[in-house]
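Reminder: ligand-aware prediction takes two inputs, not one.
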Amino acid sequence: METNIKKILNDIKQLKIQGATNIAKAGLRAYIFKHDSKTKKQLINARPTEPLLVNVLNKADKEGQEFILKHLEITQEKINKFVLKLIKNNSVVFTHCHSLSVVNALIYAKKKGKKFEVYNTETRPLYQGRKTATELAKAGIKITNFIDSGARIALTKSQDTRDVDLIFFGADAILKKGVINKVGSGMFAESAFLNKIPIYILADSWKFANKIKLEERDFKEVWKKTPKGIKIKNPAFEMIPKKYVKAIISDLGILSYDKFLKNVR
Ligand code: RUB
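Here is what comes back for the chain with ribulose-1,5-diphosphate:
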């Protein structure tokens, strides 16, 4: 029992388990195994930028596991249906990192017969974009994987790429001022805004938080044997200011940012 919790904690810390939803589900499994405040604290501290994990663990005390898993399932089903309506045939969708909410919705659209292709970014330093690309390719979705610094080329028509029609990002946290998602998201959002590409956030409303600590990860993920005199910055997340977000697609529906904020509290 003890080993299972240790393994889950390590897997979350090392990003073998990644993405807000997977982290919350794994955290819930561990907390059900060992239902005490020490375990809860350890889980919450494993990835500090995850309000869904915090909410799920708090709700586990009152509502129980089944209610939570059902809620997460229903949220994904709602997201899938909204995304299906948004994707037009022959469109290009852009995404970054690995979001289960996004990947599941795209696979659902493909299964429902939508014809579209996806551009995504590799997401250095841990390459979660490769996970996204692999899963989409496996589902038969045409996918082109770009280096992170090629994002502007990915977003707008270039030599052999098309204009992106819409962007789907997941979220780690939804704050009053903007959405927190994988580092790079804010930069892509600025470029998308300049090019009038709509950004949709696919996320559970339980990711709403008043305040959140932004995780900064080990420099070794970026450059293991850094020569002397070089400081490495490895921020895991950044904010997409709310003015760049067309709508949030969640269990509360497809809502403008302000409407989401009104409904979530
Ligand atoms: C993952 C990431 C995802 C969100 C949402 O970052 O930024 O977009 O967590 O994911 P990391 P989901 O790889 O550092 O965990 O839609 O699966 O909840």
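DSSP finds ten helices and ten strands in the chain. The beta strands are 91-96, 116-121, 142-146, 166-169, 173-174, 178-182, 199-202, 237-241, 247-250, 253-255. We will return to this case in the review session.
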